[in-house]
Design a protein that fits this description.
The complex is a heterodimer of chains A (about 260) and B (about 200).
Chain A: E1 4-10, H1 32-39, E2 49-56, H2 58-67, H3 72-78, H4 83-98, H5 104-114, E3 118-122, H6 126-133, E4 140-146, E5 148-150, E6 153-155, E7 159-160, E8 166-167, E9 171-173, H7 181-184, E10 196-199, H8 204-214, E11 218-221, H9 237-243, E12 253-256
Chain B: H1 3-33, H2 35-38, H3 46-54, H4 58-74, H5 79-94, H6 101-113, H7 120-132, H8 135-143, H9 155-164, H10 169-179
Helix pairs in contact in B: 1-4, 1-6, 5-6, 5-8, 9-10
The chains are: A alpha/beta (about 260), B mainly alpha (about 200).
Chain lengths: ~260, ~200
């Protein structure tokens, strides 16, 4: 009988724009590794664990609006540049629609339902903490994350400022973790040996603080990781994210303790 | 032709232009400082900055230089002027309904900039501002990350103020938690100015 809860927080993509072709060519970046891991039985799910996807929805809704239609301006622009850019976006949206989904969020809800995973839609970063607080005491066996991140914390969405610098205004900050201790501590199963894993760039500091605060095993990347591995994921997509080097070197996947 | 009236209109337009430019510059300074807590590529720690240099990570180094330049611009005038500009920006940018990313970043960047004003004299100005600012601005300061509270010379005075403030119980708890933490010397925010340390 399941009485433990395994939570995966899934951050969202930014818009795919021509001044920053490096990030988020596909909307699938952060959901696909988690979906593939479920299909390939990489969660190591215990019989008593219930799976939960906590999906930060606003960026997926924005991305759908941007991807699903090629605007008149984009249509004109397409003749001169970025034909591939707009084509990739539109094809992704069409592929989702062909599966009977009305948008990306609906598609993720379909995927979760098909795998017996409980889907939770988050509207604001604090919904993560309040969502964890709703679980019974001692029932959270582990927490994973997939999405944009940096040493400052987990970046649930990505935008670009006036200079096309990638920024996030929806950050779950590493510094915030100790301030949530009284709210969350009783919910965490501290007797577990299940590792809380944070898949994103520079998540090592978040993993370390999570470990220090809640006294559970954690893991994260010291440097950048690449989600581009989802194009050729093989039979262990998580292993690829943990180990595939980027131009900034290997991710240096680190565990605590 | 009434030349005097034309000159008067011209002068007024010039003044408005100057004011608009300086307002825009001010917003730009704080939007850049927001990259400390919002920039995907900002090297949050000195170790990360070293790694960025070793790997010639251009986006990282560019973001770092941008934040450094913004701090320098903030302190072009006197320290008092810099603090006044910071508090004015919180008052204007955080209180209004933000309609674009730049306004959002200017608000959070101004709150981040409070980190640069840790002395007891600074604290008196900041507390006086918080006591007199709008409820919206106060809530915004409370909910926009409280890294600046790590860098206070007199933490006990802040503890007293917080417990007596009109902040919500939740915000008070969060503020007090931040006050209980130590600032990490390894944070890059402590090393943005080669000549004058923040602490």
């Amino acid at each position: 009988m399941p009485n433990k809860n395994f939570v995966i927080l899934i951050g969202g993509p930014g818009l795919f724009i021509d001044c920053d072709p490096k990030h988020d060519k596909t909307w699938l970046n952060y959901i696909e590794p988690i979906r593939k891991a479920a299909d390939d039985d990489l969660y190591g799910k215990a019989a008593d664990e219930t799976m939960h996807w906590f999906v930060f929805e606003p960026p997926y809704m924005n991305r759908w609006t941007d991807d699903s239609e090629i605007t008149f301006y984009e249509g004109v622009e397409k003749f001169f540049q970025d034909a591939e850019l707009h084509g990739v976006r539109k094809r992704a949206a069409d592929a989702v629609a062909s599966k009977g989904a009305t948008n990306y969020v609906h598609r993720m809800q379909q995927l979760a339902a098909s795998k017996g995973i409980v889907y939770h839609g988050l509207k604001a970063p604090d919904d993560f903490w309040s969502g964890l607080a709703k679980f019974p005491d001692g029932s959270i066996s582990r927490v994973w994350y997939s999405g944009h991140a940096a040493d400052v914390g987990l970046m649930l969405s990505l935008a670009h400022d006036n200079e096309c610098t990638p920024v996030s205004t929806t950050v779950i900050r590493t510094l915030d973790i100790p301030t949530k201790k009284s709210m969350i501590e009783s919910k965490i199963d501290t007797s577990t040996n299940k590792v809380s894993k944070f898949y994103g760039c520079g998540t090592r500091s978040f993993a370390e603080k999570w470990h220090q605060t809640f006294n559970v095993p954690t893991a994260g990347a010291t440097n950048s990781v690449t989600f581009a591995v989802i194009a050729n994921p093989g039979n262990n997509v998580l292993n690829l994210i943990e180990n595939t080097p980027t131009p900034q070197g290997p991710p240096v996947w680190t565990t605590f303790p | 032709m009434d030349y005097f009236s034309v000159i008067k209109r011209g002068s007024a337009l010039a003044l408005i232009t100057v004011l608009l430019i300086s307002f825009s510059d001010q917003q730009s300074i704080f939007a850049s400082l927001a990259l400390v807590n919002s920039g995907l590529d900002f090297p949050y720690t000195q170790a990360k900055l070293v790694h960025c240099r070793e790997t010639a990570n251009e986006p990282c180094l560019k973001t770092y230089q941008r934040v450094k330049a913004a701090k320098k611009s903030l302190f072009l005038g006197s320290r008092e002027q810099a603090l006044r500009m910071t508090l004015d920006t919180i008052s204007t940018e955080c209180a209004k309904e933000q309609t674009n990313l730049q306004e959002n970043l200017a608000c959070s960047g101004a709150i981040t900039a409070l980190y640069f004003f840790p002395t007891q004299q600074d604290d008196m100005s900041i507390r006086s501002f918080l006591e007199n600012t709008s409820f919206v601005s106060l809530q915004c300061v409370a909910s926009n990350g409280s890294m600046w509270l790590l860098n206070r010379e007199n933490k006990s005075a802040w503890r007293d103020w917080i417990t007596k403030s009109s902040l919500s119980t939740e915000a008070q708890t969060t503020f007090l938690s931040f006050l209980g933490m130590q600032s990490d010397e390894n944070l890059t925010i402590n090393h943005l100015d080669d000549s004058a340390p923040n602490k």
